[in-house]
Amino acid sequence: MINYLQNLTQDFPILKKKINGEPLLYLDNAATSQTPTPVLKQIRAFYQNENANVHRGVYTLANQATEKYERVREQVAAFIHAPNAETIVYTRSTTESLNLVASSFGNLVVQKGDEILITIMEHHSNLIPWQQLAKRKGATLKYVELTSDQTLDMADLRAKLTSRTKIVAITQTSNVLGVTNPIKIIARLVHEQHAYLVVDAAQAIPHQTIDVSDLNVDFLAFSGHKMLGPTGIGVLYGKAGLLAAMPPIQYGGEMIASVSRTEAKWQNAPWKFEAGTPNIGGVIGLGAAISYYQKLGVAEVRQKETQLMASLLPQLQAIPGVTIYGSPKPAEHAGIVSFNVANIHPHDMATGLDMLGIEVRAGHHCAQPLMAALGVSATVRASVSFYNASEDMERFAWSVERVKEFFERES
Ligand code: PMP
Q1: Of the chain's two ends, which shows fewer C-beta atoms within 10 Å, N or C?
Q2: Residue 100 and residue 212 in one domain
Q3: pLDDT in tens, 368-394
Q4: 83 is catalytic
């Protein structure tokens, strides 16, 4: 294991907590990551010493707050290799970013009879906005299916991507299977058909370097809270020409160039999409989270998570009755493992684990069409982070066995 990453738990005081009398083992990092002290300190320092509204005041404090807020935009652009800060829109979350693209850009380009292509592994936030857009426009929503090894069926994608396709919306990394899709190849295929590619990077951003310029995606969305930042702050990257053509979908302060009794003119992108007082503290926290990641090294984080998966997957697989979803290869899990235990409801398993101090997610994971495709109604999902240790994996597998034994005795 990498030494630096081993000593990080001191940055996460929550990990010293007890749950039901047992030491907390937090394995729901795919739902939200814990926030390290250096990020919390910067958010507090902003509210304590620097708080003012942005883009409004002519006074020093407001100018300093605006400068910090805009500097983080540059930091985000550099982090995902976007050409400049003007391609970065602050939103509330991945969900809001994807809704913004569907409502504004989708409304602009999708016509009756067009097709929108998504995949069966989408989170509801990259599914429902397209489903509803298709309904509004009289367009057809199509799904790329899975192969028998539960990865994206690229042959199916090639077959369904035609000159009728206007938008392809796809997750970079699945929040259930952990698999990462070949976005660069998909971008080339999409552009050959003169369609646009929207990428949901909510699960990819904490696990790998993202280069939007190299991938050549048209839009990419992610949330701060899945990458050590606070909740309530998200990002939408969009190509400059596309953002320029898109109308705003929210109106109010800060997004206008001028207003008369009958007319209003918008600011340029990205500010025309940021109506009202934004989540300034959230932006400061996002900047701090990016700095923290960069200090760790995104590649090192990925390596540690793969080591944890390499330890956990065989231990889980060895338990009789366990079915693991997704690839058998640890490197293809992005720290996520979804599984079921025969004859035990996922909610019972998660409740049993909670009694032992272990926090995991159970349910449909906001991916009901994927659950249907897998032939289940729910799974248990454990998702690790670099702050977990290999002993945690042993404790987790041991605990799954104990909960299994308990329910087998009861039935
Ligand atoms: N897409 C994926 C793949 C996700 O895992 C999530 C969060 N579970 C989202 C989108 C939505 O993110 P948020 O709730 O932060 O908007």
Answers
A1: C
A2: yes
A3: 999 999 999 999 999 999 999 999 999
A4: no
